[in-house]
Structure formats: C-alpha cells, structure tokens
Amino acid sequence: MIATLAEVLPTRRGALAGLVVLGWEDAAAFVKAAAAEGLPVILQAGPGARAHMPLPVWGAMFRTLAEGAAVPVVAHLDHSRDIGECRAAIEAGFTSVMFDGSRLPLAENIRATAEVVAMAHAQGVSVEGEVGFVGYDAGEASARTTPADARAFAVGTGVDAMAVSVGNVHLQTSARAEIDFDAVRAIEAVTDVPLVLHGGSGIPAEVRRRLALETRVAKFNVGTELRQVFGASLRAGLAAHPERFDRLAIMSEVIAPMQDCARGVMRNLAG
Ligand code: 13P
Fold first, then answer.
1. What are the binding residues?
2. Which residues cross the membrane (predicted)?
3. Residue 154 confidence (pLDDT)
4. Does residue 271 lie in a domain region?
C-alpha cells in the first residue's frame, strides 16, 4: 500500500530503511524484501536515477509497486535542490520529498525548506530536510549539525524528518564511519523531529542497530551497500554464463541477492 513518510515514521519500532533505487529490478526486490519482513520500506529516487529516467516513470513505478504490496511503501524523492522538481515529483505521485538545502546558508535553507513544506503538506505529502551537511567520501567535507541549528531548522520549517551530520558520510564503500552518539543526543534534546542518517552504508551494522533502538534516528538511507551487491552479482552471473546476451536473463541474477541484502538491512534496524 502507498504511504507517506509521516504515516510510517510514528508506527515504526526501531528505524526504517530508505533504499536507493536505480531500476526496476532493485525496486521490485526491495518491495519483496519488505513484504517478507513485514516492514514498511521507503523507495528513494535520487539525482542519478532522475538523470537516467524521467521523474514521472519513477513515480508510476513506485506507486505500482506500492499498490501491489501488503506493507506500506513510501515513494520518496531523494536530494532535490529544486522546489519545482519537488512540485513535479508530487504531481508524479511521490508521497515524500527531500528538499536538500544543506549547501545554502542556514536562514536560506530554512526559508526554502519551509516553502516546500507548505506546498507538500497542502497535498498530504511528507518532507525531509537537511541541516548541517553530510559530506561525500573522497569529495566534499561534512559540516556537523549543531543542536542550535537543528532546533532552528525544526521550528522554522515544520519538516517531517530531519537529516543530520554526526559523523556519517555518503558513498563509503566500507563501514568505517564513526558516529558521534553525544551529538545525536544533543540534537534529540532540542527537537522531537525524527532524525535521518544519510550515508547508511558507511555505518557499521551494529552501530546502525544501536542507533535504531536507542536513539530517535528513524530512517537510514542506504545505497552503496546495495549497489555493491548489484555489481558483484551481475559480474558473477556474467562470468558463469558468458553466452548470455538477453538483458532480462542477465538482470535476473541480481534480484535475489539484492532482496537478501535489503532484508538484512531492514531486519537489523527493526525493533
Ligand atoms: P550511501 O550510498 O552511502 O549508503 O548513502 C545513501 C544516501 O544517503 C542516499 O541519500
């Protein structure tokens, strides 16, 4: 069933997985994984996905999968820096949008995010924002989220979920992030808004679980870890069957391994 982020967050036990989707095979695998675990799932179309395939196709795909599922499925736009794109995503059937103003000065981030919140909430759509800046492995450096900024952002925007920077980094290919639990607690002390950690792949599984059970981190975005499984299973399938040329036959190799990986990620976060 289709759901918004605001609907699934309060009903969760532990935290939920926001899984980065790049095509049909992974999207279908993640929904099957959620159904097998009996857990809600957040399907996320990020900037790369949107550059590859038009937004309305993503919206229709996510909604079709959601409508065929017995568990709640959130159709989420990940990392949009464009209010017009958030509006287009809502028109395309997304039930949740992340407006990413994290590169803007705080006051401008608050102003723009609040504008998205007003527009999205009027249509029953959830909004995630980011305060501080979650950096990129071998790329832009992080700017940690301060409690004062987190409070101002939560109060000033009315977001349903707030992505924070507490040692997490996007695109790490091994789990080596060092999460500052004291920083999480300091942010929790000043706001009730559910927290999101991007860069989930870099956070060791046992740390993800501790955060899910002991803090108000409510959503972990996971992408790289799943893409690594995609690449490995695709290569193994091609090596085992060098005669294959049919796309459907080749891609059939990735579905079960991605489903298994997604199940493990979701189960580990569940209370
Ligand atoms: P990883 O690819 O590092 O898991 O991060 C995903 C993410 O945060 C998407 O928004």
1. 79, 100, 130, 170, 198
2. none
3. 98
4. no
